[in-house]
Amino acid sequence: MRIEAGAYGRVRRISLTSLIDVIFLLLLFFMLTATFSRFADVELSTGGGASQLADQTPVFLQLHADGLSLNAEPLDVSQLGERLLVLREAGRADVVILSVRDGATSQQLVDVIAAVGASGGPPLQIVR
């Protein structure tokens, strides 16, 4: 049995093409799944009992799939802040009661909560 030294003596070069492909795919995956946007915080607090509402003047907001209504009048979310400030200055809004109806999305709810909070208006209570 004869063994050739030339067959085992050569150093084979390892191909890095497949390794580069794998690294590129991993880089692409992590870039596409990473989140670079900042999410805003919405401050929520627990509500008190019904006894706290007895001496306050409520404003009723109703959120449904078609939009928003303030005291049974249709309203746009962009107008909500200024309307709440007008009602509060007139002494007709001590607390905002928000009723969420079927079909309303969570994004609509967050928009309304943010608009009430940004207006610096009365406190918000969400009812079912």
TrEMBL record:
The keyword Transport applies. Keywords: Cell membrane, Membrane, Protein transport, Transmembrane, Transmembrane helix, Transport. GO terms for biological process: protein transport. It comes from Oceaniradius stylonematis. This is Biopolymer transporter ExbD. Pfam families: ExbD (PF02472). Belongs to the ExbD/TolR family. Its main location: membrane. One of its GO terms (molecular function) is transmembrane transporter activity. InterPro entries: ExbD. It is found in: Cell membrane. GO terms for cellular component: plasma membrane. The keyword S-adenosyl-L-methionine does not apply. It is a single-pass membrane protein; Single-pass type II membrane protein. The chain crosses the membrane at residues 16-36.
